[in-house]
């Protein structure tokens, strides 16, 4: 089972940009679907943000379409999340996740998780 290590995050003002990276820490013969989720302060549930399936299909939450871009050079390599035009409601802990297959950005569909990285957007 691959391990995930996240980089990036931090604090930014509203309208600014941040970039997150998620790197698989191990080599694997399996091809994984990889995605970003976030957990807002005070909330227990995690929200799907963006992801790329094993066949290259890109998925976005409606709340980030047009502002965030998820990218990956090829499967099982570093997954990036470029976040532009940040809003205070983007604040939260961002988690990278992976699974052998995925069809939607549903928390229950992903079994491999990174440790999370904090993003704070001030108004």
Produce a short descriptive summary.
With 123 residues, the chain is an all-beta fold. The protein contains no helices and 11 strands. Strands 2, 4, 5, 6, 9, 10 and 11 form a 7-stranded mixed β-sheet that branches. Strands 1-3-8-7 form a 4-stranded antiparallel β-sheet, with no helix packed on it.
Question: What do these coordinates show?
Answer:
The chain has 123 residues and is an all-beta fold. 0% of the residues lie in helices and 47% in strands. The chain is built from no helices and eleven strands. It has strands at 4-8, 10-13, 18-24, 33-39, 47-52, 58-60, 68-72, 79-83, 92-99, 112-113, 117-122. The strands form two sheets. Strands 2, 4, 5, 6, 9, 10 and 11 form a seven-stranded mixed sheet that branches. The protein has a four-stranded antiparallel sheet with strand order 1-3-8-7, with no helix packed on it. A hairpin with a 6-residue loop joins β7 (68-72) and β8. The model has no long low-confidence stretch (mean pLDDT 94).
Secondary-structure element order, as H and E? EEEEEEEEEEE
Structural class: mainly beta
**Main beta sheet, described?**
7 strands, mixed
How many E strands? 11
Report the sheet-strand fraction.
over 45%
The shape is: globular
Please give the share of residues in helix: under 10%
Helices, by number, come to 0
Uncertain spans, ≥5 residues at pLDDT below 50?
none
- In round numbers, the mean pLDDT is 94
**Radius of gyration over C-alpha positions, nearest whole angstrom:** 13 Å
Note the gap between the termini. 40 Å
Describe this protein with a few key phrases.
about 120 residues; mainly beta; seven-stranded mixed beta sheet; four-stranded antiparallel beta sheet; 11 strands; about 0% helix
